[in-house]
Amino acid sequence: MFSLLFFSKTLRNLLDIQYCNLSLQDDFQRPTPVYIQDGRFLAPNNTGAISLRKSQTLLVACTGTRRRVVLGNETTDHDVVEAQCLSNNTFKVDKWTGPFKDIKCNIQPYFTSEEVKGGCGRGNKLYGVGYKVKEVFYSLYEACFDPLLVRTVYVRHEILPSSIHFHKDKHRPQFTEGGLFHKVKMSKLYALSNQKARINDLLGPNEADKYITKKEFLSRGHLAARADFSLRASQVATFHYVNTAPQWQRGNAGDWAALEEGLKRRIHALGRPVTVYTGTHGVLSFGDGKELYLTTDANNNGIVPVPLYLYKLVYDPKTKKAVVFVTINSSFYNSTMTAQLTVCEDVCERREFSWLTWRDDGTTSFCCSYEDAEELNLPKLTVSGLFH
């Protein structure tokens, strides 16, 4: 028995020596670099572990002006280095050897966007958002953008089974416009003073106080969720205004958050990645046809619309099955109005969707088959059945 335990312990030690094992919470310190492994963003496995074989290398990048790699306490002259696994959490960069957590950036890496040729229909433009490392652009998600209405039609990204494991960080980055919005200053449009002014202009003096409170306001609703990405640099890249839509806070923190969390658990259980299109449709009105926009253009036409619907189209490329989760972007519509706005039979009432529980947040959400959600102008896909 003693010899068996000794052999088992020795084997585990030998295996540890052959690998570098990294912890999401302990070994990735701020400012966190971009990590590229075999041409892809570094990601944990389905158990949350990040392991590299002995001698395996990573590209470690601090992208952007004045960004440099920091090794220990020394700031190098390089914005990209190659880090080689030695054992446990020890890595080698050129002549430097030390703990992986001691490889950082002097400033958080800068993400960028690049236009994708071909667009995405109806005069819209398609942009990839990600990081450029050694002249190669690595895209984290793609955004279909309507430059006339200044709105994002949808964002496409991949959710991995490992996405359930992510770097938890209380620090919230600032959103950036990234050069896509030109003279439209998005940060000013989301200010509560502007929200109130727009509603008062639409409905009359002091009417905004009925809708805008300390707990209810139009938030910068993430389309591709921050927590869908495991590592911090990828999470930071979700803070682009092209990845947002004006969403009432109660819904953002309620049904929308429940969907994001439940969907990640479902994909983790599925064990393979799925593609998610998160989009917007329509313009929110106050029941009398008065549509809400956050600003106007030079001709006094409304732009940056507050969407009536937000949706997540979940598509499994392996089986070609899909489902559409929809939320009505209002906490003040009555049941008669929401019934009229429910565009399909709610398939989430079936037991196959027991993994999703909507929250009691005052908003209305439901689920559609891909065919029944045609009214939402979804991206065109070949669909063979219902994903659940």
TrEMBL record:
SMART domains: Endonuclease_NS (SM00892)
Pfam families, alphabetized: Endonuclease_NS
Alphabetized SUPFAM superfamilies for the sequence: His-Me finger endonucleases (SSF54060)
Span of domain DNA/RNA non-specific endonuclease/pyrophosphatase/phosphodiesterase: 137-373
Keywords for the protein's UniProt record, in alphabetical order: Endonuclease, Hydrolase, Nuclease
Assigned protein family: Belongs to the DNA/RNA non-specific endonuclease family.
Protein name (Swiss-Prot/TrEMBL): DNA/RNA non-specific endonuclease/pyrophosphatase/phosphodiesterase domain-containing protein
